[in-house]
Design goal:
27% strand, 146 residues, alpha+beta, 7-stranded mixed β-sheet
Length: 146
Amino acid sequence: MAAKIIRFPVDPRTRAQGTGRATEGGASLDLVIELADTDPALFRCATVRADDSLADLHALIADLFGWDGAHNYFFSHGSNRYEDPALFRSRDPLISRCLKLYSAADVPLGNVLDGTEAPLFYAYNLGNCWELRISVRKDVALEQFG
């Protein structure tokens, strides 16, 4: 009698660099989301789970700023670009790998905001190009204040 092997589906949200998904579980990130080049500064703060995708962050940002979320968007961090899944699907897969383009729905926040000081940039409504800077909020230690 032959054994039947049932393969479990692989989690598609892999790290952009090709390694496994973040394993923080219930870890959370406190974010500062700031509209770039505005005076006075316009920002929002939010707490998100590290295993939420960048597409989930897009939906949150649209809600925080009162946008309808219907326009294309992309995130950039270093030399990597994480695109709206609809925009990403229209690209040639080979070119996407060469240019370091990834689908925002496949990448968890914890894999992008992994403790580096470099902010994550977000562009929304590519015609008008709203640009936001996203960084992890670091609380100042109370010992500094005596």
